[in-house]
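Hi F.,

I've been meaning to write this up properly since the lab meeting, where we talked about keeping a consistent format for the predictions we share between groups. The idea is simple: the sequence comes first, exactly as it goes in, then the structure tokens exactly as they come out, then a line or two of notes. No screenshots and no reformatting. I'm using this chain as the first example so we have something concrete to point to.
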Amino acid sequence: QLVAYEVKRMRAEEGNKQKILRHIKELAEKLYKNENPYPAVTMHKVQKPTEGCHLRLHQKPFPRLDEGTVQWIIDQATAKLQTAPPAVKAEKKCMVPSGPPIAAIRERNGNALANSARRLEVVRNCISYIFENKMLEAKKLFPAVLRAMKGRAARHCLTQELNLHVQQNRAVLDHQQFDFIIRMMNCCLQDCTAMDEHGIAAALLPLVTAFCRKLSPGVTQFAYSCVQEHV
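Output, unedited:
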């Protein structure tokens, strides 16, 4: 029904947070009513006797119950139950028109996918420039790469690309390369969420123990020394 009737309304609401929230609340109420068609039945609570009440004097004896009256009350309740409507409401079947073609929805998703692909391409290109020592080109792309790190796909791409360079025995970097790679790793870890802990962060662990730079003969600094403060 949303696809059939509400597409125009949703498009009109784009950019207006109050209208969108009102629309979501309406939907939520409909869904809630659908799941909970009947109000909760109130239960009659029987009060418990107070502590020490059995020690009191002048206690009235519990009245003898009249069997006929009890049976009459039970019969009344049974009769009411038999005439009551069924507990589950009968489903009303209705035809919903197909609505607008899906091409319009695909178009919007297509744009998002294209943007995502462009970001990943920027990350790959920047890493290639760093390892090819094309630092001017890398510097131009660097701000865009750091922005891209907000997305999970870009963070995953970074770990994959760096892993390829480790496999090619290109883990020993010069100072400028080391600086660029460390900044990327820090930015990647900064934007990681708890969901990424066993994915992105775990994939970076072997990389931070592989990438290094020579500070002086016999002194090597590994990448983990610069990124180990992250939770």
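Notes:
Residues 21 and 194 are 27 Å apart (CA to CA).
The mean pLDDT is 81.

If this format works for you, I'll send the rest the same way.

G.
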